[in-house]
Amino acid sequence: MAVAMGARTLTSASTSLVLPKSLSKGAASALLGHVKLWTSVKVGGSRAMCTNSSGVRRGGIARSAVSEVTASKIGAISTEGLPVKALMEVLDAAGHRGAEVIMAALDKPRSIDYKGKADLVTDTDRNTELAILEVVREKFPDHLILGEEGGVSGDSNSDYLWCIDPLDGTTNFAHGYPSFAVSIAVLYRGRPLAATVVEFAGGPFAWVTRTFTASAGGGAFCNGQRIHVSSNDMVERSLLVTGFGYDHDAAWETNLELFKYYTDTSRGVRRLGAAAVDCCHVALGIADSYWEFRLKPWDMAAGALMVEEAGGKVTRMDGGPFSVFDRSVIVSNGAIHDKLLEKIQPATEKLIADGLNFSQWLKPTGYNSDV
Ligand code: IPD
Ligand code: CA
Ligand code: CA
Fold it and tell me: Where on this chain does Mg(2+) bind (predicted)?
C-alpha cells in the first residue's frame, strides 16, 4: 500500500505511508495501524480511493480525514512481536487469580481503611493486587505496571504498561452490594492492547462471576461469547449510566446537572459504582452509554477497550480523542454518541473555560506513549 501526502514515510510489512511532516511520529504510526487493513490507497488531489482485502472500493477520504481516522480508535495498533494470545493467557490467569482472592473474602468481616472521607480501601484490594502482580511479573518481569494500590513498578523503558484495578467498586464490595470487578488492561505505547474484567454479579448467597475479554482489533467477549453494543439510536429510549468520584469538585457538580437532565430525557440513568463494570454493560448492549469525569487509567483502560471492540465509541466528554490518561470519558453504542455530546460537550467545555484542570494525569514518568 502507498499513500503520497507529504514528507514523513512509515512502512510496515504490508503498508507504506508518506504523510505530512507536521504529523507526529506517534500519530503517524497510529494511522499506519488503523489503515493497515486496506491493501491499496491512492491519493489524487484531496481525495483518496481505497481497496480493501475483499476488493471493495471505498472513495472520498479527504486529507483532513487523517486526524479523524487517528482519533477515532483508542486501541493499540501493534504488539511489537509479542503475540496477543500470550498476553491474553496472562490476563486471564491474573484476572482469575484476583477474582479468587475477592471470592474468598466475600460475606466475611472486612478491614476497612480510608484514603479520603468516603474513599475506602480494604485489605482485599491490597491482597488482590498482590496476587495479580505475582502472575504478571512472573511472565513479564520487564513490563511496566501501574496498580491502583501499589503504584508504578517495573521497567519504565518498556512499551507495555499494565493498568491494574484489583477491585473496582470497593464501596460496593465493602457493603456486599453487587457491581464490582477485577479490571486489568495492558497498553502498548499508551494504547489499550488487551484487557480483562471479571465482574461479580448476584449478591450474598448467590455470587457469580462473568469474564469479559478484548484485544485491539480482535473483538470483545463475555464468557467466551462475542458481544456487541446495542443498536438503539434514540436518547429517549436509552438506558444510561454514570458515576460520581470521591472528589466533589465543579466537574462533580456539572455531572449532577447532567444526571438530572438525562433522568428527565432518557429511560433512566443508573449509578452503579464500578466504572469497569459500567463500561462492560455498554459493551454487552444492556446499557447504551456511560460517562464519568476524573477516572484514573486503571478504572477505564480495560472497559474502554471492551466498548470499542464491541463496536462502540469512546471519546473524552468534550468530544476529543480519548486516552486512558485523560480526566473524562464517555463510551456509547456509537449511535447515540453525538446526540449525548450535544449536551455533555458544552458542559465540559465550560469547565475547561472556567480553568478546571483536564490535563492528562498518572502517566508513569518516562513511559513512552503515543497518546
Ligand atoms: C471507583 C469506581 C466508581 C467511580 C469512582 C472510582 P474504586 O473505583 O469505579 O464507580 O465512580 O470514580 O474511583 O475506588 O472503587 O476502585
Ligand atoms: Ca476503580
Ligand atoms: Ca479499586
Answer: 148, 165, 167-168, 299
User: In this predicted structure, what is the pLDDT of residue 120?
Assistant: 82
Please work out whether the CB of residue 170 comes within 6 Å of at least one atom of ligand 1: yes
d(CA 264, CA 273): 21
Domain boundaries, the chain: 2-72, 84-226, 235-353
Residues contributing to the annotated binding site: 148, 165, 167-168, 299
pLDDT of 31: 42
Residue nearest to atom 12 of ligand 1 (CA): 245
pLDDT at 118: 75
User: From 3.40.190.80, 2.60.120.620, 3.10.50.40, 3.40.50.20, which CATH number describes the 235-353 domain?
Assistant: 3.40.190.80
CATH number of 84-226: 3.30.540.10
Phi, psi of 43 (to 5 degrees): -100, 125
**Best residue for ligand 1 mutational test, from 299, 317, 362 (most atoms within 8 Å of Cβ):** 299
Quickly list DSSP for 34-56: HTTTEEEEEEETTEEEEEETT--
Residue 123 Cα to ligand 1 midpoint, Å, equals: 17
Cα 246 to Cα 75, 119, 195, 261: the distances in Å are 28, 6, 25, 22
Query: In Å, what is the CA distance from 320 to each residue of 97, 282, 294, 342, 349?
Result: 36, 20, 15, 13, 11
290 close to 330: Cβ distance less than 8 angstroms: yes
Ligand nearest to the CA of residue 279, numbered in listed order: 1
- To test the pocket of ligand 1, the residue of 295, 324, 361, 362 to mutate (highest count of ligand atoms within 8 Å of its CB) is 295
Q: What is the pLDDT of residues 327-354, one digit of tens each?
A: 999 999 999 999 999 999 999 999 999 9
Does residue 311 have its Cβ closer than 6 Å to ligand 1?
Answer: no
CA of 168 from ligand 1 middle (Å) equals 6
What pLDDT is stored for residue 72 in this prediction? 74
| pLDDT score of 311 | 98
